[in-house]
Write a structure and sequence with these properties.
The protein has about 425 residues and is an alpha+beta fold. The chain has helices spanning about 200-205, 290-300, 305-315, 320-335, 340-345, 350-365, 370-375, 385-405, 410-420; strands at about 10-15, 25-30, 40-45, 50-55, 65, 95-100, 110-115, 120-125, 130-135, 150-155, 180-185, 185-190, 205-210, 215-225, 225-235, 245-250, 255-260, 265-270. Helix 4 packs across helix 6.
């Protein structure tokens, strides 16, 4: 038909119950192909939405109606070096991303961005989303190398992939860090052990498949504030074992995974538990108070214009939990800048001031540059807690990349301000 050869989200249906798909419909076009193209589709925990993962060579969905993140950009103060082999040259943010849509594709929304090539996504029993993102293997040894990593994917999050040497370091205050770094590899499928006839620890584990090194990791997650920390276990390994994807069979409680690809041997494996520990089903661990609060802030990430959202989110700009600060900042950035710019420029609490000025640099008019610079100058690098010094420098960085280059006199004054900080142990 007229859609043949087009890429994106397709729906196949058996309309007459004969166990054969007889209806094929392109729900939403997404231009991208190959190993960095369109990837997994996963049903939301509430059964009302479809989430999809696309790699960094995939355009945003055609006619995308909504976005949870706002104002993403490259934000490089000095020119980047593109990949020397040309990989992902001229590919820009959002890079790899996670989207969400209703089953009919009437409303498509960007949910999170900044991945290189995350192939799959999975939800835990509390509805928290995770993925396994890839590295750029020939960047190993460079300052901008980022290993394969497990990411906790939250509403409106930016995970920092930018092409070439432009990859953001994990400490940038406007991006989110990994739950755990794994190292070199080639991520494929992920899934939770929910429903498996395994001991409790392995029912709750996230499983992550590495195609290259033939390793199926069990990622044991522990709630930590509004996010998680993790312990890695090599659950199944083989040489070769080119893992592709996995699923728990609800009928027999066994764990199944597949291998294959690139002319390797394809196979289906089943994993069962033999031992004395209980395999009775376990429920979700209770969410932390910080996770509950993060969800409340994420509920403010919609498109509704409401000054009350700024008032509700603002106190969390100074929270010690990074995930809460970012959830609050995204909520504020969704509101008209004029409703909060004066509060950002006059905020006196240092942590909140840094976060608010990051938001204003990202969303404000370049005419605000002198006032943003003045507000940043009122803060003392030496007086800031150690964990706020890098966010403070990132706020300066964004003031320059987003609001424009200052005049020569201002540059000289700022150079004199920062030069005595070097050399530094951090």
């Amino acid at each position: 038909n007229e859609n043949r050869g087009r890429t994106g989200l397709w729906r196949a249906r058996d309309t007459n119950g004969d166990d054969q798909f007889d209806e094929l419909k392109l729900v939403r076009e997404m231009i991208g192909s190959g190993e960095h193209g369109t990837h997994a589709v996963v049903l939301s925990p509430d059964g009302r939405s479809l989430y999809f993962a696309n790699g960094n060579h995939t355009d945003l969905p055609v006619g995308m109606e909504k976005s949870r993140p706002v104002a993403w950009g490259e934000d490089h103060l000095i020119p980047r070096m593109w990949d020397a082999r040309g990989h992902a040259k001229d590919k820009y943010a959002p890079g790899g991303y996670v989207g969400r849509m209703d089953p009919e594709g009437r409303a498509v929304e960007l949910f999170a961005l900044g991945f290189r090539n995350q192939y799959d996504i999975a939800f835990d029993q509390n509805g928290e989303m995770f993925t396994f993102d890839s590295d750029m293997e020939w960047d190993i040894g460079t300052p901008w190398y980022v290993p394969t990593r497990i990411n906790h994917v939250v509403d409106g999050g930016d995970y920092g992939w930018r092409s070439g040497a432009g990859r953001w370091p994990a400490y940038y205050a406007d991006s989110l860090p990994a739950v755990v770094d794994i190292g070199p590899g080639s991520p494929t499928g992920v899934g939770f052990g929910t429903g498996a006839r395994f001991p409790a620890r392995h029912q709750r584990a996230l499983y992550a498949a590495d195609w290259t090194y033939g390793t199926l990791y069990a990622v044991h997650l522990t709630p930590a504030g509004a996010s998680f920390r993790a312990e890695l276990e090599e659950f199944v390994t083989g040489k070769p074992l080119p893992l592709t994807d996995m699923v728990v069979n609800p009928l027999d409680g066994a764990f199944y995974f597949t291998t294959g690809g690139r002319r390797t041997q394809s196979a289906l494996y089943r994993v069962t538990y033999t031992g004395t520990e209980s395999t009775a089903p376990v429920g979700a661990l209770p969410p932390t108070p910080e996770a509950v609060q993060r969800r409340k802030l994420e509920a403010l990430h919609g498109d509704e214009v409401n000054p009350a959202h700024v008032a509700a989110a603002w106190p969390f700009l100074s929270h010690p939990d990074r995930f809460l600060r970012i959830a609050a900042r995204v909520a504020i950035e969704k509101q008209p800048v004029g409703s909060w710019q004066e509060r950002a420029l006059t905020e006196s609490q240092p942590t909140a001031a840094v976060e608010a000025l990051i938001a204003l640099a990202r969303r404000g008019d370049p005419a605000l540059r002198p006032r943003v610079i003045a507000a940043l100058e009122r803060l003392s690098f030496a007086a800031l807690p150690a964990d706020q010094r890098l966010p403070y420098l990132r706020a300066w960085h964004l003031a320059f990349t987003r609001l424009g280059q200052p005049d020569a006199a201002t540059q000289a004054r700022l150079a004199a301000r920062f030069e005595p900080l070097f050399p530094a142990a951090d």
